Amino acid sequence: MAGLQWWGRRLLDLGGYAVGLTVVVTAVLAALSLLAGAGWNGVKLGLFLVGTLAFGYATYLRWPSRPPQDLPARRPEERDEQRQGSTEGPTVRTGGGPPEEDADRSQTPFEAVLDRLPPLLWTDLPPVERFHPGTKLYAASLLMLAVSYAMEALFGVRA
């Protein structure tokens, strides 16, 4: 049961980050769009563009910095070199940066602000047990794209 609660807190943290970032981006886009005279069409377009850019940046954050050493070599001579080389086991990585970065990962300033608001106030997870910031950004980008789509398909905001 403790494992289920831990996953629940992690998913709550992930969802809270996605909703929080989407709300902030939507508020900023709404202010800019209304000032520019674009109305809700500008918000919808802005959410689509920011969501797409956030998706790309999240991919960059999660991209491995070097290829895994435990993959089999393609050519026979590479396999021989691999067998004679290092005797270390495979490296397990959980984040987008070097392994030493994942071990002492700290909160981003935006995460620290969200942690002071309910329901994230009650999750009580150290930063190393949370999802990687790139994973949280993926979730937020998908939510931004979903809100942009919902504005058009459900609420009739069309250009």
Shape from CA axes?
Answer: globular
Major sheet attributes: none
Contiguous helical run count? 6
| Binned strand content | under 5%
Terminal CA distance: 50 Å
SSE pattern, N- to C-terminal: HHHHHH
Tell me how many strands there are.
0
Rounded to an integer in angstroms, the radius of gyration calculated over CA atoms is: 21 Å
Number of domains: 1
The helical percent reads: 55-70%
Return the structural class: mainly alpha
Contiguous low-pLDDT stretches (5 residues minimum) are 89-101
Mean pLDDT across residues: 82
Description:
The protein is an all-alpha fold and 159 residues long. The protein has one domain (2-66, 94-153). 64% of the residues lie in helices and 0% in strands. The protein starts with a helix and ends in a 6-residue tail after the last helix.
List the helices and strands and how they pair.
Elements lengths: L1 H35 L2 H24 L13 H9 L14 H5 L5 H7 L17 H21 L6
What's this model, at a glance?
The protein is mostly helical and about 160 residues long. Helix content is about 65%, strand content about 0%.
Question: Which tags fit this structure?
Answer:
mainly alpha; single chain; 64% helix; 159 residues
